[in-house]
């Protein structure tokens, strides 16, 4: 009974996280976050978990929904979130992950349909777990790479950097939980009716609680927690939108300046002027409000625009605009995950 209550709490927490991500995606024009929202919404199928006392856990299609549909939706969504958050316009391993996932999913589904019952599962059901562990390892690694590139950047607030670190932490917790599930399915038939099954089920549950709690902190990010993460940050008098916009403009402008050798103030002027022209506004507040909502695709379009080129050309006659645009796109591609991590 207690296990089913805890399971229900974990499902509800994931639905809350998914709803928050959906809201962030709409508010900040970040379509990549829809993939992560789908990842969390798909955990609704955990309602069909084969636990003792769960009336939905022993239906003829429970194992298919709990393991098959849940696994396929959550892993595909996570693969494409990784791709659209960290790898747009970059060489990436997405196709390899999809190929490996397709193979192991077919083996998993074979195990689902050949299992004797929901409480006596075929060992083949666990075929998806090695891919799942690799996927969480990949998620942690790319978060670490992004954090390592930004940790000394004074324009990036501490709470944004902490988001990367928390992603690493929950990915490790989920990997440990997945290993325990692999042992439970392979050696205890997937049930919690034996001593080994009970122990591994308990280990999985503990690390699921840890991981979901961390995921809640990462993606819902309560304001009190965000403020605590920023406790060592210098106080600012700017209003929130102005502060967030200033951070984004400084990150992009400074990075482009370092790559291209342009004067930083000229670069920031060109960015602001280009945004203003694109929305037909000269007011600083309107420009900053729009900058906060711009995602990676909008920034790429901005540096490719004629307005940006015209503004940059004011810096002198010897400007190689093609080279500037190439370097600007390189910087944006390398820092693309920041547009997601700064969303709130």
Mind explaining what this structure looks like?
With about 350 residues, this protein is mostly helical. It folds into 2 domains: about 1-230; about 240-340, no CATH class. Helices cover about 70% and strands about 0% of the residues. The chain contains 15 helices and no strands. α2 (about 30-40) runs antiparallel to α3, α5 (about 130-150) packs antiparallel against α6 and α10 runs antiparallel to α13 (about 305-315). The protein is elongated and about 75 Å long. The relative contact order is 0.10.
Question: What oligomeric arrangement do these chains adopt?
Answer: single chain
* Average pLDDT rating: 85
Provide a count of the helices.
15
Task: Name the helicity range.
Answer: over 70%
Counting structural domains, the number is 2
State the total count of DSSP E strands.
0
Overall geometry comes to: elongated
- State the low-pLDDT regions, or none: none
Query: Separation of termini?
Result: 37 Å
- Major beta sheet summary: none
Give the C-alpha Rg: 23 Å
Give the class from helix and strand content and strand pairing.
mainly alpha
Tell me what portion of residues adopts beta-strand conformation. Answer: under 5%
């Amino acid at each position: 009974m207690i296990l089913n209550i805890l399971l229900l709490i974990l499902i509800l927490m994931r639905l809350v996280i998914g709803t928050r991500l959906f809201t962030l995606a709409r508010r900040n024009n970040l379509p990549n976050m829809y993939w992560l929202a789908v990842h969390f919404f798909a955990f609704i199928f955990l309602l069909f978990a084969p636990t003792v006392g769960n009336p939905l856990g022993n239906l003829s299609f429970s194992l298919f929904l709990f393991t098959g549909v849940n696994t396929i939706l959550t892993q595909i969504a996570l693969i494409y979130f990784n791709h659209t958050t960290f790898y747009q316009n970059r060489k990436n391993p997405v196709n390899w992950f999809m190929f490996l996932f397709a193979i192991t999913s077919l083996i998993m589904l074979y195990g689902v349909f050949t299992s004797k019952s929901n409480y006596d599962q075929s060992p083949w059901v666990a075929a998806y777990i090695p891919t799942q562990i690799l996927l969480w390892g990949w998620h942690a690694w790319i978060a670490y790479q992004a954090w390592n590139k930004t940790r000394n950047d004074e324009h990036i607030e501490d709470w944004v950097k902490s988001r990367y670190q928390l992603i690493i932490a929950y990915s490790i917790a989920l990997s440990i939980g997945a290993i325990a599930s692999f042992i439970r399915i392979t050696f205890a038939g997937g049930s919690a009716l034996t001593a080994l099954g009970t122990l591994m089920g308990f280990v999985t549950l503990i690390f699921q609680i840890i991981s979901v709690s961390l995921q809640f902190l990462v993606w819902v990010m309560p304001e009190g927690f965000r403020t605590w993460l920023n406790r060592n940050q210098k106080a600012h008098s700017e209003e929130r939108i102005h502060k967030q916009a200033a951070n984004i403009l400084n990150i992009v402008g400074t990075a482009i300046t370092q790559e291209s050798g342009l004067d930083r103030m000229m670069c920031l002027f060109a960015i602001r002027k280009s945004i203003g022209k694109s929305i037909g506004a000269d007011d600083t507040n309107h420009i900053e409000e729009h900058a906060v909502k711009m995602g990676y695709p909008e920034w790429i379009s901005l540096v490719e625009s004629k307005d940006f080129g015209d503004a940059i050309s004011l810096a002198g006659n010897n400007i190689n605009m093609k080279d500037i645009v190439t370097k600007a796109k390189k910087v944006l591609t390398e820092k693309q995950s920041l547009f997601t991590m700064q969303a709130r």
